[in-house]
Write a structure and sequence with these properties.
single chain, 157 residues, 32% helix, globular
Length: 157
């Protein structure tokens, strides 16, 4: 993934709920195989990653339950909105993700979709562990404490 991680990359869809419900342990950038009308919907920002997940199996890596609404001008060539979409990664990465997925408590979740260099649409997936309710509360407390500290520093200046 050379260079700066987010340099010049426009986010087309983000899974904000994922960072609330999961602790992300590692991240990986993968490609995604789309048909023509899906690309148009993605570039218009119509994709929803809420509730989506990634599954690794013998045949590869798949994005499941991601909602790509129908393209308005797609007529009979429109795509199925919830079909499984193939993710593109190296074989060693897929094997590693599959092993991590099979561990108890770990999940593969899509974090964001963006346009990378040369106009390619990429998906950032994360290996994550679900948060308990107390962990969610702790995260909120920490975020509020940081916000209060920044406010106090701004007033002090």
């Amino acid at each position: 993934m050379g260079g700066k991680p987010n340099a010049g990359r426009t986010a087309l869809a983000t899974n904000r709920r994922a960072l609330h419900d999961y602790t992300v342990l590692s991240r990986l950038e993968v490609g995604i195989a789309l048909v023509g009308t899906e690309v148009k919907v993605v570039r218009n920002g119509g994709v929803s990653l809420a509730g989506a997940y990634v599954r690794a199996d013998d045949k590869g890596l798949w994005l499941l339950q991601a909602n790509f609404p129908p393209y308005d001008f797609g007529n009979r060539f429109n795509h199925d909105t919830l079909r499984p979409r193939r993710l593109l990664a190296h074989a060693k990465e897929i094997l590693k993700l599959r092993a991590q997925q099979e561990q108890k408590g770990l999940s593969l979740i899509p974090l964001r979709m963006y346009v990378a260099d040369r106009g390619r649409i990429k998906l950032e997936i994360g290996v994550a562990r679900g948060k308990m309710q107390s962990d969610k509360r702790e995260t909120i407390r920490r975020r509020e404490a940081d916000r209060d500290a920044r406010r106090a520093m701004a007033r002090w200046r």
